[in-house]
């Protein structure tokens, strides 16, 4: 076995002995390399009491190197490959997880946020290239029609603009984001919390096959690994840290989706949140997140997302504005005169000038201007508002209508 | 005529000569008092060129003092009263408007944000007392069913907790907020942009009568004044500055409601925004406001509003959380064991300990605990998940269900 092959085998074995993200293991690998770290742990030489116990317990179920070798064979049969930091396609951005520290950690899983030791990948794109320009779109499984619509639009719009969509594999928002990206013919990446041969949930098996055909299925766990609960949280750090930003579309009050956004915040990525009706339980978590994290950005669509993650000066969202009306360009005097005109009938220039608080000479000049703009008509008995005409925007815009719009 | 009566008449006359909020007039009144200011302006002695022209133009339509005297008589017949800073019921908070300066002013109306010279009031509550603990609820006229529901709930909830609801008189959100407050039997104040004898819009005339019966109808303009367009913006500064905070419920991209919130921000009041579906045109303005003003607070209901405007330590909103589950109280080892149990069937303690990565002695201890919590059952062939039972919350909460929730 070559040194390279030994290293790869050791990384797989280490991921089996202790869950991905374990800081003590990552530190050892950084210092000693994977092979020496594996030897040290198997010899009972772990510097960390908890890790020592875990390795000993796990080892009673099998020989770590043998388990790893079997996993590699199984991956081969699956058409999946192992990707390690030694490979060219390793996604450099996940190294940023080494500085991810969540505050107020009470569960061990929230503290074990070290970078991955390896990835299992199905699909033909190089992993690093796929994640280079990527945005995560995550959210509730029990999504509403509203949330699924928004997630599909985001997935479609991002992929259409050559951004890679990244999400988990769950029903609801995750699946909708992938489907949107697939429908645009773009690139989408599903990061799973179990072996690539165990589609979870089963109902998304067809979706996973479509993703693997044109995008990537990715996992830190070897073939055969089960989707145990803490693995979703461990996986979430990769979704947050492997992308430039995370968008949460819907989340209930107690949701894993906001856990991903939380990791994005503390990994110095952009955390983005799509609001929803305050009457929807599926938007409670998103609104709480916006209230709790001033750094989180409210986004309402692809343009806003691109504004956050896009390079400065490009991909900027236009400010939402109503249509420009001719009256918008008027100065204060012309505006005052327009607004002083009666809704019905005409008014002489003297009275009009007094009502508007401008002198008569100015009034005459401004009224000519208003006539030119077809906002006002001159009649025998004075000046009157122009009759409402169908505007080009298909909506009549009369002064009477606008007079109550502020 | 007493000196007091002369002062009152002069304030009314000044409001007729130049629109409320005019800074030059307010500065003169602060320095010279209302009577001397009126004399100065009528003598053509205005220090401000624009004000000079306006006063001269307006004066061609009548004698300012005579117009004011007539307005006072008309108010008397209406059952309305004039309130000035000399009255005990003057709302002290509006004085804060003297420091309100909007940035990037291009329209004159955005610069003229001085405190009011007087108010016309219909209703029996003292104005200052009514506004002491008040929150503004404003929004789109073309509100959706969603927005009207939220505004009604806010109006009801605030008034029920002895907060005064303040709004304009428009259809949509304004009317819904008032109706909610009225339905709770609480206090609501409508601030109009025209004379109190000219209900605008007419369709709300019945609502205005109900408001005057138990709350207050308020305006800076004398009886007979028309609802000219700029008056709504002038009025908005009073809604923003007279309350502790302003909540915007729905607003299109180009909306007067966000103008009120903008004034709240720059008057150092709390600006609050209720989000909505990103697919709704009526929430575009609210979302843009949240994006534009980091100081604006996203609120989803009365509890959040009270948290912002309530006194420190009282009226605090609880953080939205899902129900506590027994598994929430488990330590890492117990949780790992619970999650390592197969979905169906039992597993021996040795295999279970290896899967969970804990030693066998710890496993046995934690499994007893899990048995006590009725999360796990001991069987002849090992340990198994407890069968799903209807929980007290009417929803089965099994480990299998929770294992995919992160």
UniProtKB/TrEMBL annotation, chains A, B:
Lineage: superkingdom: Bacteria
Residue span, Smf/DprA SLOG domain: 82-309
GO-annotated biological processes: DNA-mediated transformation
PANTHER family, per database record: PROTEIN SMF
Protein family membership: Belongs to the DprA/Smf family.
Region (Disordered): 384-406
Upper classification of the organism: Bacteria, Bacillati, Actinomycetota, Actinomycetes, Micromonosporales
Name listed for the protein in its UniProt record: DNA processing protein
Species the sequence originates in: Micromonospora parathelypteridis
Classification via Pfam families: DNA_processg_A, WHD_DprA
Domain DprA winged helix span(s) in chain numbering: 323-371
């Amino acid at each position: 076995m070559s040194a390279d092959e030994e290293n790869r085998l050791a990384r797989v074995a280490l991921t089996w002995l202790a869950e991905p993200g374990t800081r003590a293991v990552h530190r050892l690998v950084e210092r000693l390399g994977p092979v020496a770290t594996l030897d040290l742990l198997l010899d009972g030489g772990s510097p960390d009491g908890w890790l020592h116990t875990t390795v000993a317990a796990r080892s009673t179920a099998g020989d770590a190197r043998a388990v790893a070798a079997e996993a590699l064979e199984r991956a081969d049969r699956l058409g999946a490959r192992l990707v390690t930091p030694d490979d060219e396609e390793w996604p450099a951005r996940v190294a940023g997880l080494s500085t991810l520290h969540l505050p107020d950690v009470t569960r061990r899983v929230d503290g074990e946020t070290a970078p991955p030791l390896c990835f299992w990948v199905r699909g033909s794109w190089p992993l690093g290239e796929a994640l280079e320009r990527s945005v995560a779109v995550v959210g509730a499984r029990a999504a509403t029609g509203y949330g699924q619509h928004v997630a599909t639009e985001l997935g479609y719009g991002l992929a259409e603009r050559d951004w890679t969509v990244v999400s988990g594999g769950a029903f609801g928002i995750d699946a909708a984001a992938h489907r949107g990206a697939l429908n645009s013919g773009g690139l989408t990446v599903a990061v799973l919390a179990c072996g690539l041969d165990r589609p979870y949930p089963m109902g998304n098996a067809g979706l996973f096959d479509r993703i693997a055909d044109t995008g990537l299925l990715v996992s830190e766990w070897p073939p055969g690994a089960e989707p145990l609960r803490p693995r979703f949280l461990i996986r979430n750090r990769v979704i947050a840290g492997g992308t430039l930003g995370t968008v949460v579309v819907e989340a209930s009050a107690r949701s894993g989706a906001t856990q991903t956004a939380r990791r994005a915040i503390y990994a110095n990525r952009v955390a983005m949140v799509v609001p929803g009706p305050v009457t929807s339980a599926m938007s409670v978590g998103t609104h709480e997140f916006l209230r709790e994290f001033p750094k989180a950005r409210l986004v309402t669509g692809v343009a806003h997302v691109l504004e956050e993650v896009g390079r400065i000066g490009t991909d900027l969202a236009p400010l939402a504005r109503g249509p420009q009306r001719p009256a918008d360009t008027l100065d204060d005097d012309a505006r005052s005169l327009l607004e002083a005109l009666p809704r019905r009938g005409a008014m002489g220039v003297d009275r009009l000038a007094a009502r508007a608080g401008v002198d008569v000479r100015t009034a005459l000049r401004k009224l000519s201007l208003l006539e030119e703009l077809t906002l006002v008509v001159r009649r025998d008995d004075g000046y009157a508002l122009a009759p409402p005409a169908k505007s080009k925007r298909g909506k009549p815009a009369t002064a009477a209508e606008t007079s109550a719009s502020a």
